[in-house]
């Protein structure tokens, strides 16, 4: 098979040795003998990754050092591209772009376990969902939400898996293609991302029921189903990232999968459970492989916890076990206390010699134990054991949640049968499945102390992962734009070296997680991201961030190149070095030196066992875990990947930029939290104020309604009473009182009548009404309104209006006097009109007489109704008097006054009508001429003319006024109301 060139990446290791690669001609293809029980075929509907392409024509990424297509810049500057070079460059750019594929991002929605809640996520189609903030509806606080989170958004994925998706379907559509890649020599990384409780562990590991096995056990099943009968001899073993070594005796024997005895003693029941469930669920899928190859499979299980890498299979028994435990009680510790020591493992750069073909230069976990596996059952047992250790060491202190990133690394060594003794022909591929810790933030977990530090470290690694993806995307865009410019022959195109210098260094080194996974992201394999979301619980904001992270990942391109990927060089066995023992020399040696060894981190976890569910007596064991930091690197070949530093200063500046970027991010997070808190506070305060205002307005409204009712009652009262003046109460029966015009009006009148009756009952038998005396309008009015504060207030401003009203009311409630000759005196208003137009005494007299006669004729008309006009004034009223409405009040029959009592009448009238403006200390009455005029039925000008220019008339002048009025009335009568 022809050797394929790797693309140049934005790393500083691109100038690696390219001559040491050994090209081994690929054997001719032979007929395969595989007997696949199940043949995998990708469902047509699924947007699976594009099929692997043959990389025969692949070129490095426009590196001038590697290509002669682009002319070197001359001293005069960069040469202008010719049409041919431009065309070639464009083709090259297209070829590179077409070979790459974005990181696949699948969304898996967790089913609802709590029936009551409804999801805030809706699946729109097979690839997109809409998320709507559950607090948006009916929650005013949503207006004050943090500006960084939108209330509703649509997110697109490679595929969306609904809540009812079966584990087997999910595996087939997401992971099976990667298993195939790994068996064909292609690296593959799959990681789950999501907040706590979203189903990440369920997706990777699976549940306990039949058929619920996750993608990891299924992958192991498929691998061993597919290589059935194709197992290699296991003469060589993989080391580091791409290296190969001769296996030693311990590798040849399958591991005895028994955990460290002390752990077994403590976790006995759980251990037995772990191994018993391993065989429950088996995926029968088998892939069709080239049966000319032999395969050996190696498995490791590591976790990144608190920015340290630990081996979860360290306690598996064999000579190299480094996990130290002691059943001897520590001083002061309870008898069941158990001390476990585990050492953090260093992450080291892969030496260039291991894989001269790769320009990526990844990192590996030094001293991580790996086990050669021959059956899926063995592999699953190991995984179960590692899972148990992960819980013991990482999560027992926080039972609900995985606080570490767990990664299972499956290495598949493939070698052609014809070359099985040639270590340089071995192909090594890795399938890494990562179960990331929950991505929630501290604010929501309310963690403190160690838990806070732990959460901080989790967030740090995820944050750095996001940053790496961001920088990768930006670098790829820069390169792509530059190549496109070159292809189009645009002036000002950049030299490849210039492009490289504009690229930002991807901050893989800022977290252990990204360090370990860097080779995948830097373009050495296919990457799949599974986003788990639980749309039922709280966590809308967190899930929004998860969605955005997925959107970012989908814009990063990786190189899913087919085998052969890494042709390992011959194992190097130097003097003093024993193959297979190199790993074991590290770590423990350094730890024994107290001067060098870092202080171990000590924490205690309490494990409860047995109890009700287990049917056993509950017991507790205290585990004291000593976490020892990784030893310092010894330099030499394990130095960082900076084989070809661009420039130390530039390097330092890049680091500084990354550091500042981290600080900026942290500050932004702090600000966002502070902002959210302030918004919450403001919102609460606003809500309180709004509630207070609402109360206030409700009270005010109730008060005003009361006042209006009181006012209306008073008016009704006044009107009712005005129709009964001077006569005993003669209430018409309701049917006669009722106006026939509308039913509603009748109802109103009923209500009015009932109100009057109530009033009467409250007041008791009224003297006024029983004796027929005049109702005191002002008194009643003030009494009616006395209970109303608003009325009191208004009374000040509307006093003059009331007085006018009183005048009209007086006309209503007091019958106008009859003139002795049978005619009726005009009403005050009529009289005022008449007198206002008078110009002289004679004319006035004449007009008055005319008016009198007009009244008399009116009266005559009234007499025809059959009423007894000559009797006292109380009797003239008809039995049934329609309750007058304010506008339709007709003047009533007047009384006749005599001259002898006119002074008294006038004074009384003035008093009764409340037209006096003030009462001086000397009890003299001050009267407005206008009011007096109105009261006596004269025009104001006339009054003024008679009383002089002074606007005020004092009591002593009333006499004079009376005389004047007499004169106005022609000396016969004075037209005034009397009591
Ligand atoms: N698709 C599913 N079907 C049925 N049950 C599920 C599914 N996904 C998750 N669950 C259940 O939801 C619970 C939480 O899931 P899981 O432990 O996988 O969450 P997680 O994201 O890994 O949490 P953490 O990050 O804290 O470890 C478990 O009880 C699991 O069985």
Structural key phrases:
ATP-binding; Kinesin; Kinesin-like protein; nine-stranded mixed β-sheet; 979 residues; four-stranded mixed β-sheet; disordered N terminus; 24 strands; 3 domains; P-loop_NTPase; alpha+beta; disordered C terminus; binds adenosine-5'-triphosphate; motor protein; 29 helices
Summed up, what is this model?
By secondary structure, the chain is an alpha+beta fold. Helix content is 39%, strand content 14%. The chain has 29 helices and 24 strands.
Helix/strand/pairing category: alpha+beta
What proportion of the residues form beta strands (DSSP E)?
A: 5-15%
Number of strands: 24
Main CATH class of the largest domain: Alpha Beta
Hetero ligands? adenosine-5'-triphosphate
The number of domains: 3
From the 3D coordinates, which CATH architecture of the largest domain would you assign?
3-Layer(aba) Sandwich
Q: Whole-number radius of gyration?
A: 51 Å
State the oligomer.
single chain
- The CATH topology of the largest domain: Kinesin
Poorly predicted parts? 1-87, 138-147, 318-335, 442-446, 572-597, 610-617, 635-645, 725-731, 734-748, 751-756, 758-778, 780-791, ...
Distance between the termini: 131 Å
How is the biggest beta sheet arranged?
9 strands, mixed
Q: Looking at the structure, what is the overall shape?
A: elongated
Keywords: ATP-binding, Microtubule, Motor protein, Nucleotide-binding
Region (Disordered): 1-85, 709-903
Biased composition (Basic residues): 791-805
Domain Kinesin motor: 102-556
